[in-house]
Amino acid sequence: MDSHKDVQAEDRPAEKEIESNETVEIVSAQAAKKGIIDRALPWVILAIVSFLVGALLTWFVVYQPKAQELAAAQTKITESAAMADEKIATMQTSLDAANAKLDTANENLSSAQATIEEQTALLAKTELLKVIYKFQSDVNVARATLLGQDPSSSRQALSFVSADLAELEKAGLDPDSLSGFKAKIEDAEANLNSEPLRSLDALNNLNSNILLLINNLK
User: Fold this and answer.
1) Is 151 exposed, middle or buried (0-12, 13-18, 19+ CB in 10 A)?
2) How far apart (Å, rounded) are the C-alpha atoms in residues 80 and 69?
3) Could you give the percent of the chain with pLDDT greater than 90?
4) Is the confidence at residue 5, as pLDDT, over 80?
5) What mean pLDDT, rounded, does the chain reach?
6) What is the pLDDT of residue 20?
């Protein structure tokens, strides 16, 4: 019985020694692990700091100048757009003013064209009346010389009357307005010597027709 207790007593120190060794190993492992972490931690911190410093340097060296350039470019674009709008507004104002002047010029041109047309028509009418009055004057000369018993002068005057009628026909008058004129002139010429009174009657009728023509043109 005692020997058994002695054996147990001898076994217990061995167990304590094993437990003590295990504790030492655990503590040693924890210590080794802690030592690795302690050694790695500064490097981790250094890496983080280096990353942050790099990020800051990248920001200040790369991104901030680019951002400033972008802001400057945007400002320049805005200023250019404002200047362009101002120029467009100025050009539009000038265009409106030019259009207004053009409208005024067109109105003046239309008025001038109307005036020119009126003056042209009046001039044409004046030229026509001038020929008619000469026609009437030559007819009256033929009548006067015929009354003065000067058939030669009457024949000469009648040649002028025929030329005047040709001018009137070229003037573009309605042929109906000159209807019978040529027949009366030929009648006056044919009877100038043989029947001067008949010639005078033809010239009187011709003069009446001329007066009617003048009144219609006025």
Assistant:
1) middle
2) 16
3) 29
4) no
5) 82
6) 53
Residue 193 is given by DSSP the state T
> What 8-state DSSP symbol labels residue 177?
G
Measured distance between the N- and C-terminal CA atoms of the chain, rounded to whole angstroms: 176
Which run of H or of E encompasses 218?
Answer: none
Specify the 3-state DSSP secondary structure of 175. Answer: helix
How many other CB atoms sit within 10 Å of the CB of residue 76?
10
pLDDT of 214 higher than 70: yes
pLDDT in tens, 32-75: 566 677 777 778 788 888 888 888 778 778 777 777 788 888 88
| H helix intervals, the chain | 2-58, 64-147, 151-170, 181-190, 196-217
Residue 30 CB: number of other CB atoms within 10 A? 10
pLDDT computed for residue 83 by the predictor: 82
Q: What pLDDT does 186 receive? A: 94
Q: What is residue 33's predicted lDDT score, i.e. its pLDDT?
A: 61
Give the DSSP H/E element, type plus range, for residue 62: none
Query: For residue 173, what is the DSSP state?
Result: -
Tokens representing residue 183 in the block: 């027949």
List the one residue out of 194, 111, 211, 100 whose CA is nearest residue 146: 194
Contact present, 170 and 96 (Cβ < 8 Å) = no
Who's near 178: CB < 8 A, 6+ residues apart?
Answer: 165, 168, 169, 213
If you count them, how many residues does the chain have? 218
Residues 152 and 188: beta-carbon distance below 8 Å: no
